[in-house]
Amino acid sequence: MQSQQGNKFTIPIGPQHPALKEPEHFEFNVDGELVTGASVRLGYVHRGIEKGTENRSFVQSMYLLERVCGICSHVHATAFCLGVERLAEIEAPPRAQAIRVLVAELERIHSHMLWLGVGAHEAGFDTLFMYSWRDRETVLNLLEDITGNRINYSTNVLGGVKCDIDREQAAAIRQGLDFLEERTTHYLDVVTSDMMFLRRTRGVGVMTYDESQRLGAVGPTARASGVARDLRVDAAYAAYDKYPVNLVTETAGDLEARFVVRIKELFESFRVIRAVLDDLPEGDLTTRMPRRVKEGDTISRVEAPRGELFYYIKSNGTDTAERVKVRTPTLPNMASVLTLAVGHQLADMPMILVGIDPCFSCNDRMVSVKGTLDSQCWTWEQLRQYGIEYYR
Amino acid sequence: MKLTTMWKDALGSLIKPAATQRYPFVRREAPEHLRGQLHWDPSACTGCGLCSKDCPADALEVIVLDKKAKRFVMHYHVDRCTFCAQCVASCRQGCLDMESDEWELAALDPRTFDIYYGNEADIASILDGSTEEEAEPAAAG
Predict the structure, then answer these.
(1) Helix, strand, coil fractions of chain B, as percent rounded to 5
(2) Across the strands, what pairs with A391?
(3) pLDDT band of A321, cuts 50, 70, 90
(4) Which residues contact residue A182 at a Cβ distance below 8 angstroms, ignoring those fewer than 6 apart?
């Protein structure tokens, strides 16, 4: 496709499966094989989840918000629960907080292992993809054993958790972690020594410390550029003050550093889970939660596997939230993709995109700014009719 | 730097059994806490309807026929259920439970997904009523 600007070409990628199996539209300006500019169009998977919470009680909204992300569902529910509990001026019991940390770290393991496989697949290293996903089954089986579900575990309830950890489960988790630790050591060796793989990652997509600060990068993407920022350390929530996390950072800022940071974070997760199992407080799993939540607003921040997850919750004194605002970590990291793309080969684009561990459908929110557009207010029925006519 | 880092994994797998299982010929034993089909024990139910109120998927209806005589029927839409177990947590009487060994719930007939729990005569009376209700608009149309 020839663009308006002389002899430069614009290559559209997506919205059907731009490297990942999720819809998003990118446009790369290329000069030969070199990318000279990039833009993104978000919003193909906007699901109206924030609006949906306005018609649901706090209890029901938690399960809806858990479905913002299929991979890091527990951390969304935890962020919402912590915020609502703060508004209601209650605190979940220590055992419940510890189990929240345990499940969150197991979730981080499965998320990072999934990403390791996806990253390897985009680099053309399908052997690593297959084996890392096979090993990921171990942690999914553990989660299924604890919570009853493989994905969307629904561990939380407002005021605590539903699932307890008994002695047999603790032994099974320790056994699973021993196996995963051995495999993770091997994968760390693979991503730092495999010659072919390093040619796709070393020195590719380098983001300096200053750039990552300027672009507002979060999570492992920022930590790979030397930014010492992790909410589990900086603003410990749930039981992270009792089971402290050691910050993992790298300074290279390239794709290899992002692989190394995430794999080293797996070792931290193994250590934290063992610490929770060694010192799991006795006591209740839930505390009494009022149905009507006091009027007020709060923010709740947690460290999702992809970075900082932000929730704003406003209550008007009823059993339904007046406003819930969610910002997932992919949105601040997206700017780094567009900046880092410039100067790289077109073939590196999938790798640079995957480097931030994007989750497109988590990402999409809609903001209507009054007075800037010819806005219309449609009923659900009008919108449905429009959809039927559009695709007729 | 090495040229091949995963050849040992690949060659080792040649002599190992497959990681996948031959379902449905071989069934993995369900974990003890797996959330399968919901079951309702009417003996202690007070008909408070909290399970239905809290269900995020509108999968539960508690139909109260006579509250004093404790005549309740539970209508469970298993196709809507997300197996979150909020109803189990909400029930103060402990009437609800999810069976770990009932997880093969796929079916071709959609009527299979409408499950009624309760006294058989009460269920029959409700089904008769719902059939008539559905028939009325169809007849008018």
Answers:
(1) 35, 20, 50
(2) none
(3) very high
(4) none
CATH topology assigned to domain A49-328:
Cytochrome-c3 Hydrogenase; chain B (1.10.645)
Best of A49, A58, A59, A292 to disrupt the B interface (most B CBs within 10 Å) is A59
* Spans of all domains in chain A: 49-328
Residue B29: the pLDDT is: 86
Q: What is the mean pLDDT of residues A164-191?
A: 96
Per CB-CB distance under 8 Å, the chain B contacts of A195 are 1-3
Token couple for A73: 């569902």
Chain A: nearest CA to B54, how far in angstroms? 6
Query: Computed from CA positions of residues A178, A181, A182, A183, in that sequence, does the dihedral angle turn out positive or negative?
Result: positive
Whole-number Å distance between alpha carbons of A306 and A221: 8
Give the burial string for A296-334 (b: 16+ CB within 10 Å, else e): eeeebbbbbbbbbbbbbbebeeeebbeebebbbbbbbbb
Please state which CATH class domain B21-140 belongs to: alpha beta
A171 close contact with B: CB closer than 8 A: no
Domain ranges for chain B: 21-140
Closest residue of chain B to A145, computed from CA coordinates: B31
Paired strand residues for A327:
A310
A378: confidence class by pLDDT, cuts 50, 70, 90 = confident
User: A374: distance to nearest CA of chain B, Å?
Assistant: 35
pLDDT per residue as tens digits for the range A152-162: 999 999 999 99
**In this predicted structure, what is the pLDDT of residue B1?**
78
**Cis peptide leading into residue B56 (ω within 30°):** no
**How sure is the predictor about B137, in pLDDT bands with cuts at 50, 70 and 90?**
very low
CB pair distance less than 8 Å for B86 and A127: no
Q: What average pLDDT does this structure show over A281-309?
A: 94
Residue B24 CA to its chain's centroid (Å):
20
Q: Taking 80 as the threshold, does the pLDDT of residue A5 lie above it?
A: no
Inter-chain residue contact A148 with B35, CB threshold 8 Å = yes
Q: What's the rounded Cα separation, in Å, for the pair A238 and A75?
A: 11
- On average, the pLDDT of chain A sits at 91
Cα–Cα dist A92/A98, whole Å: 10
A376 burial level (CB within 10 Å; 0-12, 13-18, 19+) = exposed
Report, as an integer, the average pLDDT of B1-27.
Answer: 88
User: For chain B, what is the mean pLDDT?
Assistant: 86
